[in-house]
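Support request from a user on the community tier.

User writes: "When I paste my structure tokens into the form, the page sometimes reloads and wipes my input. The last time it worked, I copied everything first. Here is what I submitted, just in case something in the input itself triggers the reload:"
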């Protein structure tokens, strides 16, 4: 690695460290809206128990999502986005 590339990399790591420590502000932030789980479930017409089964989580987890105590992440979040966009087709695909 040449010195110029190393110095650029070192500078970016130092900038990241400053942001993490609160000494600097990030150049940009990317925020994603939380899925409205209860509204998405309502679009499907399913009960909490059935919707939880389809999504692959416990009923308790679904209740926590709907009440805002917890938030879906990763694949569950992606699946909710698909269910929100086209509930009829998504359910058909998920139920075989």
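"...and here is what came back when it finally went through:"
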């Amino acid at each position: 690695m040449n010195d110029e590339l190393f110095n650029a990399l070192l500078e970016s790591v130092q900038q990241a460290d400053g942001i993490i420590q609160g000494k600097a502000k990030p150049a940009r932030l990317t925020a994603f809206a939380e899925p409205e789980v209860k509204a998405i479930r309502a679009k499907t017409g399913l009960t909490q128990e059935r919707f939880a089964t389809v999504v692959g989580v416990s009923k308790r987890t679904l209740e926590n999502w709907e009440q805002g105590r917890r938030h879906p992440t990763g694949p569950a979040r992606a699946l909710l986005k698909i269910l929100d966009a086209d509930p009829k087709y998504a359910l058909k695909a998920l139920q075989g």
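Agent notes: The reload is a front-end session timeout and is unrelated to the input. Residues 1-28 form one domain. DSSP finds six helices and no strands in the chain. Escalated to web team.
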